[in-house]
Amino acid sequence: MKHIIDAHFDLLMDVAIQREYGRKNVIVSDYLPDFLAGGVQTIVAAIYIDSKFLPEMGLRKALQQISALHAEAEEAPDKIMVCKSVDDIETAKKAGKIGFVLSLEGADPLYNDLSLLRIFYELGVRFMGLVWSRRNFVGDGSHFSPVREGKKGGITEFGVQLIEAAEAMGMIIDVSHLNDEGFWDVMEIAKKPIIASHSNCRSLAGSMRNLTDEQIKAIASTNGVIGINGVNIFVADSDDKSDLEHLVNHVDHVAALVGVEHIGIGLDIIEPFMKYDSPLALAEASRKDFDVVKGHRMIPELVNALAKRGYTDEATRLIMGKNFIRVYKEVWK
Description:
This protein is of the alpha/beta class and 333 residues long. It has helices at residues 11-20, 26-38, 58-75, 86-94, 116-122, 157-169, 180-189, 213-221, 232-235, 244-258, 279-284, 299-308, 313-331, and strands spanning 4-9, 40-47, 80-82, 98-105, 125-129, 172-174, 194-196, 225-228, 263-265. Strands 1, 2, 3, 4, 5, 6, 7, 8 and 9 form a 9-stranded parallel sheet that branches. The radius of gyration is 18 Å and the shape is globular.
């Protein structure tokens, strides 16, 4: 049986907002049917903070999202479990529950206070995404498309301290959204396996959010994993090519470069959250974002597409979750 892990899903922002409206059991009502239809056992729930809340409300919004997940788990203890270890993930799977692991998508809620890291760890955060696609106290993010800006920076002094402290604590460093300068700094600073939870291949789709071949090789050299992203702008440079076949091309490319042992899925499903995007931002976007994988219930189609490309059952099990579990076992305490 495959253990399917989606290494990046931004549902907590939506869950927290819906709970502010007075709703409960949001995950069970809005998301669980898709998880079950797709055979998903583990979700890495990203804590994403919209730029309009930064810097003043970053910490508050992050804690609200964590609180929302814990409340949801209390409301549906037979269906949802907050996981802090590989043992927890396996326990949830055996009990037929969806296991959720917390990830910071950008260290913005910490501001420049390293002492807050312990609090997030105790609350269940096990992944440290250093930046979103903007600058913070750790470093600079990679923009989705070129913007007018000055010189980019690498990892800051605070960023070095954060990476070292997070690894010592048992958090996995995630380089998705990090710019190239910062990426190569991380490769010199980090001592444990690195992941890119939701990034594709830049040689196949030119967004700076994607990884160069050399970066893919560098992540593999740490025994890390790259989660393949299903958003159209990271799948192909034109929408007519942004489909499942081109998504699998990214799997093929990483497999050819470094082997199937370094591939996972971080689908970054976005369409459920586009209701929160500002009309101005949507109007100004050069391309309208959409999901190539239309929800988690479409994962079996991705599995079938892999089989058609010649991936064995064992290779597919590695891609669907076993590779990430390997990294979790190596880094988490």
